[in-house]
C-alpha cells in the first residue's frame, strides 16, 4: 500500500472511531439511552471480535488472504499463553509466556 | 470535591490500570516496526484512533497489504463497543455543552468508562474533572508507550518473534471476556467462523466472524440467560 493511502486509512479509521465514541454523548438529549436490543448485542462485541482475531492468527500464523498453511507451533504456544491468561489475567505475562513458548518450540524443532 | 481534587482522585484511581496498559502500548508501537510499516504510522494510529485492540488489528492488516476499506471496517467493528460506553456516560455529563463533550468522546476508553461510571454513582467528585484525570492519564501513558515501543521494537533481534505479541495481546483480552456461557458462545462462534473464512477474499473473515459471534451471543442469551456481570474488561 502506498504511504499516502496508509495515512488516509488511519485518518478515516480515526474519524470513524471518534464518531462511535461521540454517538450517544452527542445525541443523548434527543434520543435518551441506548435501545435495549442494541445494548444487548454490543455486550457480545468483545468476546466475538477477540476470538475472531485470535483463532485464525494462531492456526494460520496470521497470514492474510489466500495463503493458509497451518502453524502447529503457534497453536501450542497460544495454548500455553491461554492458560497463563486464564490464571493471571495479565497482558504482560500472557505475551511473555507465549513468546518464550514459541521460541523454545522453534529451538526444539530445529534441534530435532 | 473541588476541580483539582477531582482530577487527582481520577489519576489515583487509574494508576493501577496504567500498569496494565504499558505492555499493550509497547506492542502497539513495536508491531508497526515488525510489520515493516513506517514508524510514524504508530504515532498516527495512537493519536488519531487511540484504541489499542483496533490499532493492532489495523497494523496486522496493513502489513499484509489488505484492502483499505476492509481495514477501516475492521477498526470500526472492533470499536463498536464504545457506543455502549458513550451511552452509559452521557446521562452523567448532561451538564456539558456539545463542544465540551468532544474531548470527552475523544478520550473515551475501556478504563475511562469503567472507572468513571463507578465513581459517578458515588457522586462525590466534580465529574468532568475526575473523568479528565482518568482519561488523560491513559492517553499520556498510551502515547509514551507507543513511542517507546517503536524504538524498542526496532532493536529487538530478528530471532524473537515479536509479531506474535499481537495475537497474544488479543488472547489476553479474550480470555477474561469469555467467562460467561453466552459470551463463551459468542467467542466460540466468532472464532470458528473467522477460522473457516480465514482465506476469504479481502480479509473479511474477521468482520463476518465477529458479527456471527455477536449474533450467537444474543441467541445464547435467550437460551441460557444473561451472563453474571460480564463487563468489557479489556485494557485499551
From TrEMBL, chain A:
It comes from Halomarina oriensis. This is AzlD domain-containing protein. Keywords: Membrane, Transmembrane, Transmembrane helix. The chain crosses the membrane at residues 43-61, 68-86, 92-111.
From TrEMBL, chain B:
GO terms for biological process: L-valine transmembrane transport. It is found in: Cell membrane. GO terms for cellular component: plasma membrane. Keywords: Cell membrane, Membrane, Transmembrane, Transmembrane helix, Transport. The keyword Protease does not apply. It is a multi-pass membrane protein. InterPro entries: Brnchd-chn_aa_trnsp_permease. It comes from the Archaea. The chain crosses the membrane at residues 14-37, 57-78, 129-154, 185-218. Belongs to the AzlC family. This is Branched-chain amino acid ABC transporter permease. It comes from Halomarina oriensis.
Amino acid at each position: 500500500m502506498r504511504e499516502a493511502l496508509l495515512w488516509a486509512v488511519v485518518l478515516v479509521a480515526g474519524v470513524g472511531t471518534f464518531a462511535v465514541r461521540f454517538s450517544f454523548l452527542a445525541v443523548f438529549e434527543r434520543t435518551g439511552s441506548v435501545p435495549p436490543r442494541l445494548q444487548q448485542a454490543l455486550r457480545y462485541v468483545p468476546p466475538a471480535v477477540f476470538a475472531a482475531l485470535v483463532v485464525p492468527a494462531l492456526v494460520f500464523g496470521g497470514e492474510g488472504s489466500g495463503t493458509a498453511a497451518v502453524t502447529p507451533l503457534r497453536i501450542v504456544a497460544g495454548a500455553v499463553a491461554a492458560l497463563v491468561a486464564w490464571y493471571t489475567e495479565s497482558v504482560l505475562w500472557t505475551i511473555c509466556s507465549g513468546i518464550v513458548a514459541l521460541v523454545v518450540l522453534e529451538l526444539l524443532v530445529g534441534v530435532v | 470535591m473541588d476541580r483539582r481534587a477531582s482530577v487527582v482522585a481520577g489519576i489515583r484511581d487509574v494508576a493501577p490500570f496504567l500498569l496494565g496498559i504499558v505492555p499493550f502500548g509497547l506492542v502497539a508501537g513495536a508491531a508497526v516496526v515488525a510489520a515493516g510499516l513506517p514508524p510514524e504510522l504508530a504515532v498516527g494510529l495512537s493519536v488519531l484512533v487511540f484504541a489499542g485492540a483496533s490499532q493492532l488489528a489495523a497494523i496486522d492488516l496493513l502489513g499484509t497489504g489488505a484492502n483499505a476499506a476492509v481495514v477501516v471496517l475492521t477498526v470500526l467493528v472492533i470499536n463498536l463497543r464504545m457506543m455502549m460506553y458513550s451511552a452509559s456516560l452521557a446521562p452523567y455529563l448532561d451538564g456539558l455543552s456539545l463542544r465540551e463533550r468532544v474531548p470527552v468522546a475523544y478520550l473515551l476508553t475501556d478504563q475511562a468508562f469503567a472507572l468513571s461510571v463507578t465513581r459517578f454513582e458515588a457522586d462525590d467528585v466534580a465529574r468532568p474533572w475526575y473523568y479528565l484525570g482518568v482519561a488523560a492519564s491513559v492517553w499520556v501513558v498510551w502515547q509514551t508507550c507507543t513511542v517507546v515501543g517503536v524504538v524498542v521494537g526496532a532493536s529487538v533481534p530478528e530471532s524473537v518473534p515479536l509479531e506474535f505479541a499481537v495475537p497474544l495481546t488479543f488472547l489476553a483480552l479474550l480470555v477474561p471476556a469469555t467467562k460467561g456461557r453466552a459470551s463463551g458462545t459468542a467467542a466460540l462462534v466468532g472464532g470458528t467462523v473467522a477460522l473457516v473464512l480465514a482465506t476469504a477474499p479481502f480479509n473479511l473473515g474477521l468482520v463476518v466472524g465477529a458479527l456471527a459471534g455477536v449474533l450467537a451471543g444474543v441467541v445464547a442469551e435467550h437460551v441460557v440467560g444473561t451472563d453474571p456481570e460480564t463487563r468489557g474488561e479489556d485494557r485499551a
